[in-house]
Amino acid sequence: MSTEEKLYEGKAKIVYATANPGELRMHFKDDLTAFNGQKHDQMAGKGYYNAQITAILMSYLQSRGVPTHFIRLLGDTDLLVRRLEMVPLEVVARNIAAGSLAKRLGLEEGKVLTQPVFELYYKNDALGDPLVNRSHVRAMGWAKDAVVDEMLTLARQVNTLLQERFAASGLVLVDFKLEFGLSGDQVILGDEITPDTCRLWDASTQEKLDKDRFRRDLGGVMEAYEEVYRRLLNRD
Ligand code: TMP
Ligand code: ASP
Q1: What pLDDT does 40 receive?
Q2: 183-216: per-residue pLDDT in tens?
Q3: What ranges do the domains of the chain cover?
Q4: Which residue, 1, 89, 118, 131, is most buried by CB atoms nearer than 10 A?
Q5: Cβ pair 190, 219 in contact under 8 A
Q6: pLDDT of 63-96, one tens digit each?
C-alpha cells in the first residue's frame, strides 16, 4: 500500500489513492497541531485513536441515515473512504460556549447556548480559516446554495445524533467541526470526527477530554483520547 500515490498531506492526515478511482485511503498521523499549526507535537497512539473513533462515529451516523464517506477500517490507523469533491468550508456546530465563540462574543466558557449555533469557516490555512457567512459563500462561489442548505441540515442532524451517542458514554458534546464533499449532486459527510475536531467534556466532572488538553498544556492528552475511545467502545 505504501506505493500508492499520496494525493494530499495535511496536519493530521495523509490521503492516498487506491486501485479503485472512487475510493481513497485516509491515514491518521500521530501529529498534533494547534493555532493554525504554530504549535506542533507528535504523540504515539494518536493516529490509532483518531482512526478508530472516526470509524465508530461515522458507522453510527451512517446507520442513522447520514451519508458519510466511510467504507471500512484498514488496519489500525487507516480508513477506506469514498472519494469526494470537497467543499472548501468547515461547518462548526456549538452547544456550549467555548473556544473562539467564547472569545469573540465575550461569553463565559461553559455557558449553555439556548439553541445550537452553526457557523461556516472558509478552509484556507494561509488565512487561518476565517469565519464567513452565506453571502460570502455565494459571492465567492465556494458552494451552491442548495449544497450549503444540505450541509447545515446534515450538521443539525449530526449534532443531535452525536449528542445522544456521546451522552450514552458520559460525555458532553460542547462543539465540533464537520467537512462535506460532493459525489455527483449528493452532499456527503467527509473528513474525521475525533477529539481533534470536537470538544468533549466528562458529563459529571466537566473534565476536558479533547485537543484543548494539548492547546492549553493541561497534560494527559493521549490518556484523554484513549478514554474517549474506551467509552465509545463500551457502548457499541
Ligand atoms: P473554535 O472554538 O476554535 O472555533 O473551534 C470549534 C470546534 O471546531 C472545536 O471543537 C475544534 C474544531 N476545530 C477544528 O476541528 N479545526 C479547526 O481548524 C478549528 C479552528 C476548530
Ligand atoms: N486545527 C488547527 C490547527 O491544527 C487549529 C486548532 O485546532 O487549534 O492548527
Answers
A1: 97
A2: 999 999 999 999 999 999 999 999 999 999 999 9
A3: 6-82, 85-220
A4: 89
A5: no
A6: 999 999 999 999 999 999 999 999 999 999 999 9
Quick one: 6-82 is in which CATH superfamily?
Phosphorylase Kinase; domain 1 (3.30.200.20)
- The long-range contacts involving 175-178, CB below 8 angstroms and separated by at least 24 positions, are 175/92, 175/93, 175/94, 175/95, 175/96, 175/98, 175/99, 175/101, 175/199, 176/92, 176/93, 177/90, 177/91, 177/92, 177/121, 178/90, 178/91, 178/92, 178/93, 178/151, 178/154
Among protein residues, the one with the nearest Cα to ligand 1's atom 20 is 129
Cell numbers linked to 168 = 450514552
Q: How far is the CA of 37 from the centre of ligand 2 (A)?
A: 6
Query: Which atom of ligand 2 is closest in space to residue 33's alpha carbon?
Result: 4
- pTM given for the model: 0.97
90 CA to centre of ligand 1 in angstroms: 9
Give residue 184 CA to ligand 2 midpoint distance, Å: 30
**Which of 29, 30, 33, when mutated, tests ligand 2's pocket best, judged by the most ligand atoms within 8 Å of its CB?**
33
The answer to whether the Cα torsion of 155, 161, 164, 165 is positive or negative is negative
Report domain 85-220's class.
alpha beta
Q: What ligand 2 atom has the least distance to the C-alpha of 215?
A: 8
